Amino acid sequence: MQEKWLFRFALVSSLIGILIVYYMSLNILGIGEVNEDYLDQPVRIKGYISNINVLDSFYLITVYDKTGEIVVIDFDKNSYLKGEEITIRGTVSEYDGELQLIMK
User: Fold this and answer.
1) pTM assigned to the model
2) Is 41 helix (H, G, I), strand (E, B) or coil?
3) pLDDT at 50 over 90
4) To 5 degrees, how large is the angle CA 18–CA 23–CA 15?
5) From residue 32, how far is each of 1, 12, 38, 67, 73 by CA, in Å?
6) Which domains does the chain have, with CATH numbers?
């Protein structure tokens, strides 16, 4: 009896996890799709790092994909490599007339 319950629990948990991962992957925007309509809104993008500027209190990371390029601000100062493919979740903002993404 206990083994059947444990098996069912594990199966349901696995299916829920797969659905969550699938749902999260559907919400990834192409960088070129990020526009003024998304200002102050959370978005997810996926791309490659082309440049990393290390400043005192944050990193400025330039990320590109086949649709465009955007600057990402990381206040947590995570570890990055040029050319690395990354998925980023953040809020769209504007600075000096250019859109940027502030990581969450």
Assistant:
1) 0.74
2) coil
3) yes
4) 20
5) 54, 37, 12, 5, 17
6) 2-103 (2.40.50.140)
